[in-house]
Amino acid sequence: MLYRVLAIVAVLLLAVGGCSSGQGAGQRTLKLWHYEGPDSAMGAAWALAVKQFEAAHPDVKVVLEEKGFEQIRKTAPMVLNSKDAPDVLEYDKGNATSGLLARQGLLTDLTDEVTRRGWDKLVTGESQTTARYDDKGVMGSGRWYGVPNYAEYVSIYYNKDQFAKYGIAVPTTLDQLTAAMDKFVAAGITPLASAGQEYPAQQLMYELALTKASRDWVDRYQRYTGKVDFHDAAWTYGATTFADWVHKGYLSKDSVGAKAEDMGLSFIQGRSPIMVTGSWWFGRLVKDVKDFQWGSVLWPGLTAGSAGNMWVVPKGSKNKDLAYDFIAITMSPPVQDALRDAGGVPLVRNGSASDPKAKEVTDNFGVLSTQDRLAFYPDWPAPGYYDELVSAVQKLTTGTATPSQVLDEIAKPYQENLANVGR
């Protein structure tokens, strides 16, 4: 679930239609939206894809229009049902986002195009889960409504210099992580960068719950395969431990009002030696961390992660053929290699990155995928659940609600959504 507060770029590609067939010149317009920053691996890859699209369509003029991610997240159903809808866009995956739009009839069924272009041979196994939705908008089966072409996962970033200064070993278990944070707190340092106003804090609570969870637990929660008990051992541990971490000073109560950018800057500027967040931050860290050495290590056990955001085509797109051409370019070896070399996780692998850190990011996804440790993201199950989780976890941070009360709060909209989809 990507939840990055990055600019959405609307790319207006203008081409002369029908020229190759000798027909009259009719101007065609393709709107392309994506919300990746230029410093991210995906941003670099999509910039290359645009250049390759232009090379394949020499009469195309590119015009950029910037929008905010939060604006699109909240207004996508309305925008995609209007004349202002783009022809193709990068959009969040999961039941609450792409699944909802598919159920509402706002997205194009891509199944035939996926088969014709062989994308189902490139996006395989669990990576197909978030691309396919049934008639209720539930992921994992049914028709293709999107095409992912990268992957992502949550892990632990750490400041190597700070760990060395205080004689702390790299944490590979939860006990080692808490022991490391205890040492930082004893030294007067708040160890964990977080952000309660956006996705990081809710993802952290989910990560903690996952340490007590199983694949069946994930499937019941994410794919509605069975009953979900929000007061079971996993959810109770996640909420209780998060509150305990705040109480112990592992993360600041002030983080309740912080955004993801604030979290990232706290780590980048060396103020917080640990950050638990997604692989989408990798490119930013490579570019902006100047004063210390840093590394990453996998979260122990299951972790939030999946195939990345998808290219979707609105039902009302007037230039679906060009949209499909652009998607195909993003799946091509040169673009996938550019994504890999910039520290992203390509779904189409053509060798290894030369940079050791970038190779580690890709190889770690291979470990998670092979060991079946990817558990999607906490806000996916229900429309509007992102905001519900943000609000609930904020109360854990401030101590204005008990863990049990918070779990009751997040159970209600989940159960209401189950009723809406007939489960």
The counted number of beta strands is: 14
User: What is the H level of CATH, i.e. the homologous superfamily of the largest domain?
Assistant: Periplasmic binding protein-like II
Oligomeric grouping of the chains? single chain
For the residues shown, what is the average pLDDT?
Answer: 89
Shape: globular
**Number of helices in the DSSP assignment:** 17
User: Compute the gyration radius: what is it?
Assistant: 21 Å
Structural class by sheet pairing and helices: alpha+beta
CATH class descriptor name of the largest domain: Alpha Beta
DSSP strand content: 15-25%
> What ranges have pLDDT less than 50 throughout 5 or more consecutive residues?
1-24
Strand line-up of the largest beta sheet: 3-1-2-4-13-7
Protein name: Extracellular solute-binding protein
Structural summary, described in words:
The chain has helices at residues 41-56, 69-79, 95-103, 111-117, 119-122, 160-165, 174-186, 199-210, 215-223, 233-247, 260-268, 282-288, 320-330, 333-341, 356-370, 385-398, 403-420; strands at residues 7-17, 26-34, 61-68, 88-91, 132-133, 143-144, 147-148, 150-159, 192-193, 274-278, 294-298, 305-307, 310-312, 345-346. With 423 residues, it is an alpha+beta fold. The protein has 2 domains: 7-151 and 307-355, 3-Layer(aba) Sandwich (D-Maltodextrin-Binding Protein, domain 2), CATH 3.40.190.10; 153-305 and 376-420, D-Maltodextrin-Binding Protein, domain 2 (3-Layer(aba) Sandwich). Strands 3-1-2-4-13-7 form a 6-stranded mixed β-sheet. Strands 8, 9, 10, 11, 12 and 14 form a 6-stranded mixed β-sheet that branches. α8 crosses α10 (233-247), α10 (233-247) packs across α17 and α16 packs antiparallel against α17 (403-420). The longest helix is centred in the C-terminal third of the chain and has 18 residues, at 403-420. 50% of the residues are buried.
